[in-house]
Amino acid sequence: MPVTDLFAQRATLGRSVRLLSEFRHEQGDPARFYGALAADTADMVTDLWRATNAGVPAGQTVVDVGGGPGYFATAFTHAGWNYVGVEPDPSEMHAAEQVRQAGPGSFVRASGMALPFADGSVDVCLSSNVAEHVARPWQLGAEMLRVTRPGGLAILSYTVWLGPFGGHEMGLTHYLGGARAAARYARKHGHPPKNNYGSSLFAVSAADGLKWASSTGALVAAFPRYHPRWAWGLTNIAGVREFLVSNLVLVLRAPIRPK
């Protein structure tokens, strides 16, 4: 079964509208926003897993690189996964402890650029909206693929720079250029944006992600994360995809090596 077959059934226009409506609550009601995003992400990963493995996850390990606060831990645990979050930022780990309140999952303080796991040791390695925040996103991807066991999945999802959400809290001003948008934000608010261009936010394109993923020989699917199934073809249109894909999901299956 193709890896996206099950998730494609879930990728409806209604789902896209529901997720878009949740985005407006990110600042005012983060529990609502991140809870909905976490549940949808767990559903997506579970569907991708079930399409290539027998049965539902029952204790398989998912490593979530840059998992942030513990909403994802709860959602993945409820879906049957053994969840391990990886966070380099101690403040994010502290926030996760507050959200979880001794809830499910476990967390490791480490960098996604050097994951503290053995080669081929986890069933799924996930990175959700992290690649655009690191200067070397494909090193992150290579590390994810390294720790994924043969036949397991590395799922790298990131915000495309030229899409409408590429500027994050800078809004659409990123179309003026990243440095200009950051300076404009600082003048307006009296402080630099949290996602500051050139230090914690980078211009990652869809084309570069597809090129890197194809070079690994492990790419099995690429699609816009929040779009309905009938719009997935946008991923294949050079130029257009940079503006309309918004968030690109790269699904890689770690190769099974002959004994």
Question: Would you kindly provide a written description of the structure presented here, covering whatever features stand out?
Answer:
With 259 residues, this protein is of the alpha/beta class. 38% of the residues lie in helices and 18% in strands. The chain has helices at residues 5-10, 13-23, 30-52, 71-78, 90-100, 137-147, 178-189, 206-216, 240-244, and strands spanning 61-65, 82-87, 106-109, 122-128, 148-159, 219-224, 247-253. A seven-stranded mixed β-sheet has the order 3-2-1-4-5-7-6, with helices on both faces. Strand 2, helix 5 and strand 3 (106-109) form a beta-alpha-beta unit. Helix 3 (30-52) packs parallel to helix 4. It starts with a helix and ends in a 6-residue tail after the last strand.
Quaternary: single chain
The CATH architecture assignment of the largest domain turns out to be: 3-Layer(aba) Sandwich
Can you give the mean pLDDT?
A: 90
Task: Give the domain tally.
Answer: 2
Terminal-residue CA separation: 24 Å
The structural class is: alpha/beta
Give a nutshell description of this structure:
This protein has 259 residues and is α/β, with parallel strands linked by helices.
Provide tags for this entry.
Rossmann fold; 9 helices
